[in-house]
Amino acid sequence: MVRELRRANLLHGERDLDLDRIPAEADLSSLILRSRRVPLEVLSLERAETGHDVVHCRIRSPVEAARAGLDIMYRMRGLRWEALYEIVVRGEGEDEREPVSCDLRGMIRIVNATTRTFSNTLVRIEQLEQSGDAERMSGPGFLVLDRADPLSDLWFDRAGEPAIPYQFIIPRRVNLAAHSETEIPLIVRVRTPAWRFYEMVAEEVPTGRREPMPLRKYISFRHEDERDEKAAMLPAGRVRVYAGARRRHFVQEARFQRTLRGGEIRVDLGLSDDVKAWRVAGPRVKLPGGGMGESSEIRIRNEGDTDVRVEVDEKPATTLGWSLISSTMPCREVSNRLRFSLTLGAGSEERIGYEFRLREPEI
């Protein structure tokens, strides 16, 4: 969407008005012409025969106004943008005892593939994000439903929440030349203190396996700098991750999530060789006082020679509803999942057990 502020002399009644510098890529069906001082009525508009960048308008004004401010807005093809980031991990990546820090650089790349040059322009970009917590999908399965059955709607996926638009204002005015790309610096952070941890996600460690599975290793740091108001929110985009102060080693290209000031930025360093886990599901039993329940156990092993921090994102291996009865370690319940945090000593193994009550489907 392009918005321009111009001035024109308005006469009482109808008059013709030519708007120049309206590029051929503009969608005239979306063009809006208004004034804050005068309630204008646009009677017609069309491309002028004298030039491809001129739009001929017929307008009606109830009063006469000299040099009245006009807002011109229209949608336009050929403008696009993306956010690009680079994260450099400093410090020893393997030795958990060594301190680690991260450098973060980000920019906005705007592509102007149109015939119009925009000079001294204020840019506001918008990004859509799905609201709500996306459920992690389990393994494939099949369920045949009869849509004519009034009970089948209990099993259909619920409609997703509408996407939420987030807006970001480029902190300075820019020049966007026609048929060109413009890169605008967004954020620069150097030697931000970071911390390491490992994460176990239930769907990545299926129950019933005899051999433990490696956990993913992350480096995390906070996005916060009270001195820089322009970086209060960072839009989502592509990120390239390097290890070493001089970008000696390319780690991966990943997706950078939208991050608010104070939010956590995670760097995925891949699967670990030393920290592993497996899950064991217990039998279904009758509970005192009625009802059925199950128990589960998470086993985490640290085969390295230093202590490590582990975050566990657990979901019981059941398709039924459930409620937690007890656990051997404190946990938080978030979006129908269990979150555990622990420090695992070198060469040790930790077992986390919990019991839960099953809820049969209600019809």
How would you briefly describe this protein structure?
This protein has 363 residues and is mostly beta strands.
Structural notes for this entry:
- The structure is a single chain.
- The chain has 363 residues and is mostly beta strands.
- It has strands at residues 2-10, 13-19, 26-34, 41-47, 55-61, 65-76, 79-91, 100-112, 118-121, 124-130, 163-169, 174-176, 180-193, 195-201, 213-223, 233-234, 237-243, 249-256, 259-260, 263-281, 285-286, 292-302, 308-314, 321-327, 332-334, 337-344, 349-359.
- The chain is built from no helices and 27 strands.
- Strands 14, 15, 20, 21, 22, 23, 24, 25, 26 and 27 form a ten-stranded mixed sheet that branches. It has a five-stranded mixed sheet with strand order 13-8-7-17-18, with no helix packed on it.
- Residues 132-140 have low confidence and may be disordered.
